[in-house]
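For reproducibility, we list the full input for the NAP complex.
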Amino acid sequence: MYDIIIVGAGPAGLTAALYALRANKKVLVLESKSYGGQIVNASLVENYPALPNISGFDFATNLYNQVKDLNGEIKFEGVIRIEEDKTVITHKNSYKAKAIILATGAENRKLNIENEEKLVGNGVSYCATCDGNFYKNKTVAVNGGGNTALEDAIYLSNIAKKVYLIHRRDIFRGEEKYLSELKEKDNVEIIVNSTITKLNGENKLESIEVKDNNDTKQTIEIDGLFIAIGQTPKNEIFSNIIELDEKGYIKSHDGVHTNCDKIYVAGDTRVKELRQLTTAVSDGSIAATIAIKEMED
Ligand code: NAP
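The corresponding predicted structure, in tokenized form, follows.
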């Protein structure tokens, strides 16, 4: 019997673990993939207060080690179901706790076009910092208009010969600072008001077909495509008991409590305005503190 089971070992989940362990609680963190969540893909985190030059991977590793140093128990088992009595079922085991914190983050959104799935790892990637080095002096494209896409394009422009940045509108969600930096680069071409409609290549990506708002089509030969079009939550497994909004994010009237007693939510996976590292760690600390308080009430 655990005091708290935390589902997800990203910044929100690991911060919740840190707070609960420091309060001497018996904690289990369950993670289906590897620790760190999406921040591991950020080459540089520039907007975390007082840590101006840390990579996402280093941030996640420091946090993971901080939890391990407190003897935090982290198991790499995918959760397949939770019950209202605070049972958590993974593909290997079943665990019970007094409280659960759901911190499952979100996963990369797919374009859902022909050949996308088939070419992952053979020209199609969702992580520039993981796969960028395979494209030294080659031609790549980044799709998206948020901070991830802009940062990815900057990162890749220092590795690849040529970078196309393709965005479906002419207004970018990402910060102006990154956009200005990209506009200054000789090897970056920005294509706006355009969507990628097709990926060509049998065993390896060879080219993409791009259509603009006037239905004009062009084929661009590239070696790599980095898809950075945001994230979607992965909460269907909780929908037997947890209320989700129409996009699949966990509803919470106050940003901490779910509709189920002693089941809490933290981080990108909940309905919220700003999904960032700062707000994820804030959520994790608050969720753990409230879970502990309500356990002791
Ligand atoms: P995001 O801000 O949600 O941006 C997603 C982008 O993809 C948008 O430009 C969107 O276009 C586009 N898009 C969505 N679905 C699409 C589709 N089906 N086809 C084509 N384009 C599509 O996602 P993100 O860039 O991954 O960022 C997520 C959060 O992390 C944000 O809050 C961001 O600020 C933060 N972040 C921060 C940093 C940093 O501060 N260093 C770095 C990375 C990310 P529309 O604009 O037309 O909707």
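Helices lie at 11-22, 56-69, 128-131, 147-157, 176-183, 277-296. The chain has six helices and 17 strands. Both points were considered when choosing residues for closer inspection.
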